[in-house]
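U., I forgot to send this yesterday:
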Amino acid sequence: MKKALALAAALAALTLACGPKEPPTPVIDPNANPFFSEWTAPFGTPPFDQIKPAHYMPAYEKGMADQKIETAAVAGSAEPPTFANTIEALERSGRLLSKVNNVFNLYTNNHTSEELQKIEQDVAPLLSKHDDDIVLDAKLFARVKAVFEQRQALGLAPEQDRLLERTYKSFVRSGAALDEAKKAELRTVNEELTVLGVKFGQNVLKEDNGFHLVVDKAEDLAGLPEDVAAAAAEAAKAKGLEGKWVFTLHKPSCIPFFQYSAKRELREKLFQAFIKRGDNGNEADNKAVAAKIAALRVKRANLLGYKSHADYVLEEAMAKTPAGVYGLLDQIWPPALAMAKAEAKELQALMAKDGITGPLRPWDWWYYAEKLKKAKYDLDDETLRPYFELKAVRQGAFDTATKLWGLTFTPRNDIPVYHPDVEVFEVKEADGTHVGILYSDYFPRPSKRGGAWSSAIREQSALDGRKVSPIVYNVGNFTKPTAEKPSLITFEEALTLFHEFGHALHDLLSDVTYESLSGTNVPRDFVELPSQIMENWASDSEVIKTYAKHYKTGQPIPQELVDKIKKAGQFNQGFATVEYVSACLLDMDWHTLAKAEEKDAKAFEDASMKKIGLIPEIVVRYRTPYFSHIFASGYSAGYYSYIWSEVLDKDAYEAFKEKGLFDPATAKSYRDNILARGNTREPMESYKIFRGREPKVEPLLKARGLLK
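Result:
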């Protein structure tokens, strides 16, 4: 029943009883809408070449109507409630709705348009009301509760018991046990949250695309590598600015500019635009939106009996409580801040050698850090970039999975794609058995949000003996190829590719019965383990030589450069850790608020950073107005998850180092106990079965150079 409950539980997307009217049951020619028929493309992949914006709203309406009939049949059944006729019946419901929603979300994140954004705004309150009507149905909840109360006597298999527990808790955490007055209040809160979350995300996309730095003099390209300038020239040409150079707020464009541009005033201009996204006093300003979201989340948490939104969220996470999160972050922050301060002094001294007086500023850090890395290790991103051709890196990720589990990845040119940049692969077991489908989509475009992520169009399940294979996609925003060169990415971007591939493997190798428990449907602070552990293979000195090959000569990366990468592994880790952990703490501060008051977002953020002593040379990784992870995605009170999971991944990787990076028994245990199990048991239980004990924090501290 994840289709209805996930949004309700994670986002509590509920709406007013007097809100949007019930969508009428549409009368539609089934042959006219591709969502209303079985997909005949290979493996049931979406017919992207047939799906049009006009198809979404009718499909959403029919999907909601169908699920309403399905859940009403469960609620109104004259039969005594059982696991089969209640819990499994709910799990089966909403398949059409899930089908359209997964494709629509793919488009709104990867290739949106004004038309799709309008549909997104219109459908959000309808979905909110739909989910609400299910999880707040008193008769339906009574049946779920009746089954749950018989739990000990039912003799359920472990996965069935887990589904029963998760279903019951989802209803309760969505307000099913509240009285009618509080349910109505909750509906009001969550309709607003649904609409505001959409608005926040759309505003960030507008701001990402709303600024570009135009350079019209060649001398202002001073310090920039040839490839960076060439990409900027192509970006200018695409905007009709022939003979000029354009730098945008997309990371493949702005980060190299921060690293290499010798023009300090231009670095400042671009950097200020980057950190002012959503904070420009225009129609896309997100400060009031974020403050309203935070206040409404407090109100919702209070209605549900929790002190704060963080208390509500973390009850379902490995950390369990805000104190658990702060406890981990408090171990990391002091040594990281001390290291960052030492790094700042080194950069300040280097800046002084350039004859620049005055303090080091945030737009100087990237530039002088790159200079210092070059001076200390004779290493920079541009030296490495020719060895990291995008397709070769992807093949390196594929080869790693082949060595670990025998998986193969076969290109499929017969499967439709949603954009020309997208490539498709069939994933198979060593014996040729079909596992699933993987799409890769790696280049930035105005219709795509920033960052990198992994998601699923269809999740693995095996209910009623019907095996459903997963359809997964990996997304990035890496450097596009030019007329002269293929896509050459940085080493950090190579790690990102392996990271997202790890998420894909989590979905692809799932082996459970129930879709709502499959793959990545696990707590936020566990879901990053399978992604982050893959980064360890990407950077291993032996593995890296198998895929990092010069794009012209085909020669493997020299051992000398591999050694330099290893030596530089802890370089600038004070900055990286402080930048990240400060964002974790900002997230927690927003979501441990106990009163539903709308704060001045800038003043609140400033006070949060002052409290922890963030130095002025570093800006928090995500400022409030563009912190989409927590205000427009599912990471509220959960951005710490990356470092929590890093504790797990560094500790888990030690198991491979102890037995061998491709040891068959260790790889099988990891697959069977982590990747395949999804949310069929408590994550810590899965981890302990694999590792033989709970994780230790020391490997993480050692890896980041924070352990003395």
